[in-house]
Design a protein that fits this description.
single chain, about 210 residues, alpha+beta
């Protein structure tokens, strides 16, 4: 629909950087016992425990102590393999209207993704990138805005005593602006309905 104005981009990141369910399912050629030991090491690292830096831990988990400078194939990207997937976070569309914008159904296909150093993987709705056409809205008000029903997958969270948050980091921004989540986002708590009203402001500069 070419009428109306472009809806802003909406970026969301799950506070949990490692989805344990996906980590267990996608850790090929690794035994169940070794997977659980690696998860224990990850939880120790997030808690700042010195035990994880022992010689035994370094030998068992060398990937945690190596810095990767070369490009890796997309299918091997840990942020894609082991992070939360927007397809799973959106409640089943066959049962729920889990994504609605301007009164029309949207879905995981309307999101683009990117890697983030703190959140692992974030997702942006209406980014206008990678061939995604911008979605316009015709009228103001809640009925023409964005409505999302999301599952944060709490049962797949890593125990994190340093950052014990459960929920999402969300940022509403212009398509031409990079989403600096750590500086400008707001938190959405799990199990609650959150309403966010926005107002668009156009600033014009004159150099006469």
């Amino acid at each position: 629909d070419a009428s109306g104005v472009a809806f802003p981009a909406v970026t969301l990141c799950n506070f949990n950087f490692l989805n344990l369910r996906r980590y267990r399912n996608n850790s090929y050629n690794v035994g169940d016992e070794d997977i659980e030991l690696k998860i224990e090491a990850i939880e120790q690292m997030t808690a700042g425990s010195v035990d994880v830096f022992s010689e035994e831990s370094r030998k068992r988990n060398p990937e945690f102590f190596k810095r990767i400078y070369r490009e890796i194939p997309e299918e091997q990207d840990p942020s894609k393999l082991f992070s939360h997937d927007i397809k799973d976070m959106l409640l089943p569309p066959s049962i729920f209207n889990s994504c609605v914008l301007n009164g029309r159904t949207c879905g995981s296909k309307n999101f683009t993704s990117f890697s983030h150093s703190d959140f692992s993987r974030c997702y942006t709705l209406n980014s206008g990138l990678n061939g995604h056409p911008l979605i316009n809205v015709s009228l103001a008000g809640a009925n023409f805005g964005l409505k999302l029903l999301l599952n944060i997958e709490r049962d797949s969270y890593v125990e994190n005593s340093i950052v014990p948050f459960v929920g999402l980091s969300v940022l509403v921004h212009d398509q031409s602006t990079y989403p600096f989540m750590e500086q400008r986002s707001f938190a959405v708590q799990a199990g609650l309905q959150t309403i966010c009203a926005i107002k668009r402001k156009k600033v014009c500069f004159s150099f006469d």
